[in-house]
Amino acid sequence: MVTASRAQRVSAAFVRLTDTLVADYDVLDLLHALVEASVDLLDAAAAGLLLADPHGELQVVASTSERSQLVEILQLRAGSGPCVECYLTGTVIAVDDIESLGARWPDFREAALSQGFRSVHAVPMRVHGKTIGAMGLFGELPGALTPEDIAIGQALADVATISILQERTIRESALVNEQLQRALNSRVLIEQAKGVISHTAGVDMEEAFKRLRTYARENSQNLHDTATQIINRTLRL
Predict the structure, then answer these.
(1) 124 has which bridge partners?
(2) Domain check: are 138 and 30 in the same one?
(3) What is the rounded distance in angstroms from the CA atom of residue 202 to the CA atom of residue 235?
(4) 131 touches 160 (CB < 8 A)
(5) Are 105 and 129 within one domain?
(6) How far apart, in Å, are the Cα atoms of 99 and each of 105, 108, 186?
(7) For residues 74 and 108, is the Cβ–Cβ distance under 8 A?
(8) Domain check: are 123 and 72 in the same one?
(9) How many domains, in total, are found in the chain?
(10) Which conformational region is residue 9 in: left (phi greater than 0), alpha (psi within -120 to 50 degrees), or beta?
């Protein structure tokens, strides 16, 4: 059996990540693929990923083990730790020996050591100066990541970050298009309602629209719903 070289494994990992970027892809699938690939390629014992929610609060969204998830959660509760600092600064945070932290991040140090971790390296999820989260790579032995390891980890995180931001952009664009279409549809309804009011009340179109808008405001309704009632003959102005 031929063992794949590291370069081949790295290429395969990027292919797996990009394969998730199909229509209606699941962001969580992408993030789990990211942490799994990082553990495989960077010889980490476990990995956990934090993402900022719309309010800027970090949340654990993916992990390769319950141990790493627990440590990440405890970091969040304490409000400090290498992954939290990585997110805040947008830079790689390396802790080659967790035992040597001393008084720095005491809650994180205790939690990590209790789960058998001796080193951690946090990689930011960022693109164009925007940081949306951080990935923590946990080791069971003290030691530093090589520059090559850091470059691979950052590249994997960057691919995932771009994918997430792209998905958000698509979703936001879809929302804008939906709102625009609703506005166009509402305009058609309003014109029809104006015609009904003008015909039944014997007023011109300007006065018809004035009556429509006044009724909507006085009854805390939007113009779309009021126009619909006019057209359906459930409301007469």
Answers:
(1) 134
(2) yes
(3) 16
(4) no
(5) yes
(6) 11, 11, 64
(7) yes
(8) yes
(9) 2
(10) alpha
**Residue 236 resides in a domain:** no
Q: Is the pLDDT score of 22 beyond 60?
A: no
- Per-residue pLDDT, averaged over 125-130, amounts to 82
Confidence of residue 49 (pLDDT cuts 50, 70, 90): confident
Where a domain ends, among 148, 169, 190? 169
Task: Calculate mean pLDDT across residues 162-186.
Answer: 69
Least confident among 9-13, 102-106, 114-118, 194-198: 9-13
Query: What is the pairing mode between strands 93-95 and 58-63?
Result: unpaired
Q: In what order do the strands lie in the sheet with 130-139?
A: 58-63, 46-52, 130-139, 119-127, 93-95
DSSP of 8-40: HHHHHHHHHHHHT-STT--HHHHHHHHHHHHHH
Q: What is the pTM of this model?
A: 0.66
Range of the domain at 200: 177-231
pLDDT value, residue 99: 94
